[in-house]
């Protein structure tokens, strides 16, 4: 029964977070920003205000596929946000520009996250192979090695949190100072940004819970070997 509750939690938490962000985005993508600026214009304005003339703003396909690419120095906005004039579009555009500002200012947590990418990717790919071998073959060493690989991926998830929260904080400051939104639109913009942050919190929470569960399995396996 305990395992059923556990698996229900790790499935429901991400689903709830996704529903929150999609609900907030859907609602506020129908609310026009008073400035009448498209997401592309919002991004370009904030970039120029921070002297980041070398960072490009491009349209990309998909919904909520918005991201900042540090390799090419490009803010990519999904079509709805790139062309749209909504509060949600302005919030998302400003958030991605927040990452560009972090990059330009060598924000420590962003640099740390970039350094973790190859380790986290390797850990994600290897962890479950080693964990399954360890569990089914009852070899605690393989299980521990798999847990170590998973820990690298979990660390990446945890380090992502301050990066995302900081980008959202910068986004609010920038769109207010640039006059993109009025005071009565700040609450709506924060709802979009907070809902998006929930997805990262949910992912980190689930990753930590799974790591703790596997550590308990390892402890039990070692206890049986003694």
Can you lay out the helices and strands and say which pair or pack?
Layout: H1 2-28, H2 39-49, E1 56-60, E2 67-69, E3 74-78, H3 79-83, H4 87-104, H5 108-136, H6 140-177, H7 186-225
Parallel strand pairs: 1-3
Antiparallel strand pairs: 2-3
Helix pairs in contact: 1-7, 2-4, 4-6, 4-7, 5-6, 6-7
Could you walk me through the main structural features you see in this protein, from its secondary elements to its overall organization?
This protein has one domain. A hairpin with a 4-residue loop joins β2 and β3. The protein has helices at 2-28, 39-49, 79-83, 87-104, 108-136, 140-177, 186-225; strands spanning 56-60, 67-69, 74-78. α5 (108-136) runs antiparallel to α6 and α6 (140-177) runs antiparallel to α7. Strands 1-3-2 form a three-stranded mixed β-sheet. The two termini are 28 Å apart. It is mainly α and 226 residues long. It has seven helices and three strands. GO terms for molecular function: peptidase activity.
Structural descriptors:
226 residues; mainly alpha; 3-stranded mixed sheet; 7 helices
The residue fraction in helices comes out at over 70%
Largest sheet: 3 strands, mixed
Question: How many structural units, i.e. domains?
Answer: 1
Instruction: Provide the succession of SSEs.
Output: HHEEEHHHHH
- Calculate the mean pLDDT score and round it: 92
| Strand residue percentage | 5-15%
Report the strand count: 3
* Helix-and-strand structural type: mainly alpha
Low-confidence stretches: none
Distance between the termini: 28 Å
Shape label: elongated
Integer-rounded radius of gyration: 21 Å
Task: Record the strand order, biggest sheet.
Answer: 1-3-2
The number of helical elements comes to 7
């Amino acid at each position: 029964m305990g395992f059923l509750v556990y698996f229900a939690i790790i499935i429901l938490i991400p689903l709830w977070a996704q529903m929150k962000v999609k609900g907030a985005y859907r609602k506020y993508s129908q609310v026009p920003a008073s400035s009448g600026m498209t997401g592309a214009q919002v991004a370009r304005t904030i970039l120029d205000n921070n002297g980041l003339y070398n960072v490009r703003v491009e349209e990309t396909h998909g919904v909520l596929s918005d991201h900042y690419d540090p390799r090419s120095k490009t803010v990519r906005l999904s079509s709805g946000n790139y062309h749209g004039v909504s509060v949600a579009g302005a919030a998302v555009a400003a958030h991605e520009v927040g990452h560009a500002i972090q990059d330009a200012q060598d924000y420590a947590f962003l640099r740390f996250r970039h350094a973790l990418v190859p380790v986290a990717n390797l850990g994600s790919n290897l962890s479950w192979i080693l964990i399954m071998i360890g569990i089914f073959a009852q070899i605690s060493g393989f299980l521990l090695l798999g847990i170590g690989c998973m820990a690298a991926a979990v660390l990446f998830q945890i380090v992502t949190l301050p990066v995302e929260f900081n980008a959202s904080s910068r986004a609010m400051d920038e769109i207010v100072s640039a006059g993109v939104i009025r005071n009565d639109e700040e609450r709506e913009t924060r709802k979009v940004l907070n809902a998006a942050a929930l997805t990262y919190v949910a992912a980190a929470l689930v990753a930590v819970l799974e790591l703790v569960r596997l550590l308990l399995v390892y402890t039990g396996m070692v206890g049986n070997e003694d």
